[in-house]
Amino acid sequence: DVKVTQSSRYLVKRTGEKVFLECVQDMDHENMFWYRQDPGLGLRLIYFSYDVKMKEKGDIPEGYSVSREKKERFSLILESASTNQTSMYLCASSTGTGSYEQYFGPGTRLTVT
Amino acid sequence: AQKVTQAQTEISVVEKEDVTLDCVYETRDTTYYLFWYKQPPSGELVFLIRRNSFDEQNEISGRYSWNFQKSTSSFNFTITASQVVDSAVYFCALSESTNTGNQFYFGTGTSLTVIP
To answer: Whole-angstrom Cα distance, residue B78 to residue B40?
Structure first.
């Protein structure tokens, strides 16, 4: 079974803090993604990566950055957390160069106070 | 413009009823992929099905069936004889080719509640 794990299920941070969300997949997938999920808005893509050290902006990259130093790990960084970044963050991975299904982690519910 | 539209925000049905979740998509690509995911209360999205744009055959998997119609740009999902365990948020998604690979677009989800 594909396993995507995220470092925390729940996280509470203060405004202005630097926040790291970690995602690890164990299936040697080339592609990894970060989404945020908000009520009524569905999933919105923040960043994605198709290879180590490679990153591409999604639909809402502002206020975020990412790092992919190893194939299995994709980190999402909030440089200076703000209250409007309170959300559920979902990491996903997929294989191949075609359009294969994504496998999701359990999510991290981040609250910024 | 929304590439994937799930017009039904919330649906409630009584157990054993059939229910259809609608999905309408928008793309100019000739090659694309459509997906359905289930998000139960635990939160983790579970992949249900993938269809490519060249395969319009309907698919049935147990109580689940999918109706893909390119003429109406729709990919609807029907649950037959619904059960309480079907209660979840269901997402439809579209994947298109871009210069840097494939990008996914998710709908806003349909929350299904099955009442015992």
So the answer is: 17
One-character DSSP codes across A75-97: EEEESS--GGG-EEEEEEEE-SS
Q: Which residues pair with A20 in a beta bridge?
A: A77
CA distances from A13 to A61, A111, B108 (A): 20, 6, 27
Q: Which secondary-structure segment (H or E) carries A19? A: strand A19-25
Neighbours of A43 (CB within 10 A): 27
Judging contacts by C-beta atoms under 8 Å, the chain A residues touching residue B7 are none
| B101's tokens | 């690979």
pLDDT digits (tens, 9 = 90+) for B43-57: 889 999 999 888 888
The alpha carbon of residue A15 is apart from the nearest alpha carbon of chain B, in Å, by 25
Residue B5, pLDDT score:
95
Q: What is the dihedral of CA B37, B43, B44, B50, to 10 degrees?
A: 0
* Cα angle, residue B21 at apex, residues B67 and B65 outer, rounded to 5°: 40
